[in-house]
Amino acid sequence: MKRLDHIEMFYNFAFINDEVKREVRRAIFKAIAIPGYQVPFGSREMPFARGWGTGGIQITLSIITPTDVLKVIDQGSDESVNAENIKRFVARVSPGIGITTDTTQATIIQTRHRIPEEPMRSDQILVLQVPYPEALREVEPSEVETRRMHAEGDYGRMWLYLYEDIVRFGEVRISYRYPVRVNEHYIMDPSPIPRWDVPKLNMAESLFLFGAGREKRIYAVPPFTRVEPLTFEDHPFRIENFNGAKCKLCGSFDTYLNEIIMTEAGERIFLCSDTSYCKKRRKQLGV
Question: What structural domains and CATH numbers belong to the chain?
Answer without folding.
Answer: 2-136+175-229 (3.40.50.11310), 241-287 (no CATH)
